Amino acid sequence: MKHFFALLVLIVSCAGVLYADEMSSQHYSITSDSVNAGGILSTSTNYKLEDTAGDIATGISSSTNFLLYAGYQKQQMTDIALTPGGDVVMSPSIGGITGGTANGSSTFTVTSSNDPGYMVTIKASSSPALTTGSESFADYTPAGVVPDFTFSVDAGTSEFGFSPEGTDIHSKFLDNGVACGTGSSDTALSCWDALSTSDQTIVQRMSATASTGSQTTLNFRAAIGSGKIQPEGVYVSTTTITVLPL
How far apart, in whole angstroms, are the C-alpha atoms of residue 83 and residue 91? Predict the structure, then answer.
């Protein structure tokens, strides 16, 4: 009996510059501070003004490994970081003649003090995304323009798709219990879509996170239809996750 199993290699990247916390504890973090003689926050109906007095040694300094924004008006006021999950080994192995379904998942965390928020995108390194040599699984094909609520493959096909879960997933992955792209629910293991070699948004948050960050789980599924003969092998998909400030 022919069998296969799939390994997903997850690569993460973070656009922009990452900043270490100036001070932190278990519950709080201060991303930067400034020593000066005074300052005030002034507001009106249309404007907000923050000023300071007494800054010394201000400006931008750099070296091979560091970039310093010194002074209240120069310092970077937001940070963003992505903590990845590990690579995914799909299970169980599936009979290439008998067919079946394999699943796997990985969870990543984004921590950000950026008030406008951030977005997370995902893309595959190849099309189809899941391959071994010249053999592959077809990228999952939803029935419409939004993800399928239920993962389903025809008897004569083998397909590979993904579904994100979390409090900040993009609206097209939300559901109303029967369909995706509508409602506000995040039903477990629902709303399946295909990976692409182009970035597609899976998370969009319009505010900063708590110091513990915001988690998103990526579920992956590969299925062989009962009438499909899939060549045996170790099938691999390399996927890149990128976080971008808004």
Answer: 24
Closest by CA position to 219, among listed 185, 192, 180, 179:
192
CA distance 192 to 151: 6
For the stretch 117-163, pLDDT in tens is 899 999 999 999 999 899 999 999 999 999 999 999 999 999 999 99
Q: Which of 162, 163, 157 is nearest to 138 (CA)?
A: 157
What size, in residues, is the chain?
A: 246
219: closest CA among 105, 129, 142?
105
Q: What is the pLDDT of residues 75-99, one digit of tens each?
A: 555 678 888 888 888 888 887 777 8
Specify whether the CB–CB gap between 78 and 118 falls below 8 A: no
Q: What is the DSSP letter of 172?
A: G
> Which pTM does this prediction carry?
0.75
| Phi, psi values for residue 102, rounded to 5° | -120, 145
**Residue of 111, 116, 94, 67 whose CA lies nearest to 233:** 94
- Of the candidates 33, 83, 40, 85, the residue with the CA atom closest to the CA atom of residue 209: 83
CA–CA separation, 37 and 104 (whole Å): 55
